[in-house]
Amino acid sequence: MFIKIGVATIPPTTMAAARLSLAAIMLVAIALAQGYRLPFTLRAWAAFTFVGVMGNAVPFTLIAWGELEVDSGLAAILMGFMPVATALLAHTFVGDERLTTRRAMGVLCGFSGTLLLVGFSALSGLGAQAAAQLAVVGGALCYAITTVFVRRFANLPDVLMAAGAVTTGALAILPLAFFFESPLSVSPSPASMAAVVVLGLVSTGFAALIYFYLIRTVGAAIFSQVNFLTPAIGVAFGMIFLDELPGADAWSALALIVIGVWLVTRRSRSGGKQDSG
User: The whole model's pTM is what?
Assistant: First the structure.
């Protein structure tokens, strides 16, 4: 929603650069306040750069550009590719995150619930703006690759990973914004400016701290289920703030999403760890 408001008067690369810059300032300040200093080793900055570019700069730009033409409902469905890709990649590259039958059923339930919740009518526009739709899917794939990379290779404290990755993402995208869009000549509306502030401080900065913590503690496949909950939260906000009453399809979709997330995250009865079978 905030991306849609932001790109109304702010070009997509400029918006991505602005939200990353705001988040970087916030996260570096938090790291310094906690007594941390960003490390200056090749290994650390290689990880920062990969996560910053693949997990921030590229997908933020792709999704913002895609949503210039793609409706938010169809974008939500296309973003549902992220948990699917994450589960497959984690199965291949992370030894303790095997794609069991139960997990596969959970991912399928979650994706089906998202499709039912958003509405099959959203698929009517599939293919009409192929490049924009592929951009959204590309952003989802970037998130999946980054999530598995972080799960396997990131070993620094969460606040340092967040600060370093977001800072390198900002440094990577700022020159592109100035080269392609002349951000100093942009005249954003107050609503777009407010949207960028929320995207930067909350949806990027604060979310980055949660992101690294959760991937380290619960794993990549389980973390990725958040993408299925996003449209469900949208329905909940509509009920709370707009007095909207979901229909039977919405309640069925929410049930599918909850069942799907439960199947992926359910713990085994015997070991206390995530069920591997």
Answer: 0.72
